[in-house]
Specification:
It is a single chain. With 157 residues, the protein is mainly beta. A hairpin with a 2-residue loop joins strand 5 and strand 6. The two termini are 38 Å apart. The N terminus is likely disordered.
Length: 157
């Protein structure tokens, strides 16, 4: 009787719907920050650069499919104008999901968008990379300094 119970329990785990499989995954995120080139002020042109957001997912029990969404916080400033800070000075910039730098990468509120993806959960880690496209608009008259910001990356799966 004991063997029969174990077999039925195993069958029940394998019969879970695909949406439940996502609950059996572990996903982590790592980033490489956006490092802008030197910005010339006043009257300088735009400064563009990119970073990397890497999402790694691994199945913990059952192989299946799942999905996740990657959201970015405002950091300093707002989604309309994120801000790089140096002491009491700020330099406007933003982060985008596209190479044209027309879609602000945010949390899905207002006109911002998130990055979403579906994946196959494997027992070995699978990593996917996403590119944040950064831009500092030109013609900002700011004093020289080291400007920085911290943006939080949140993955929901």
């Amino acid at each position: 009787m004991m063997r029969r119970w174990q077999w039925l329990l195993s069958l029940g785990v394998l019969a879970l719907p695909l949406s439940a499989h996502a609950l059996l995954a572990t996903c982590t995120v790592s980033t490489t920050g956006i490092t802008f080139p030197a910005y010339t002020s006043p009257g300088g042109g735009t400064a563009d650069s990119t970073g990397d957001v890497a999402v790694t997912c691994t199945a913990t029990l059952v192989i299946g499919t799942g999905s996740y969404t990657i959201a970015l916080s405002t950091g300093s400033g707002t989604f309309a104008n994120r801000a790089l800070i140096s002491g009491g000075n700020s330099l406007n910039y933003n982060i985008y999901t596209d190479t044209a730098r027309s879609i602000v990468w945010g949390d899905g509120s207002g006109t911002t968008q998130t990055e979403s993806d579906s994946y196959v959960i494997l027992l070995t880690p699978t990593t996917r990379h996403y590119t944040p496209y950064g831009r500092i608009p030109g013609a900002q008259n700011k004093p020289a300094g080291t400007y920085s910001d911290t943006v939080t990356v949140t993955i929901t799966y």
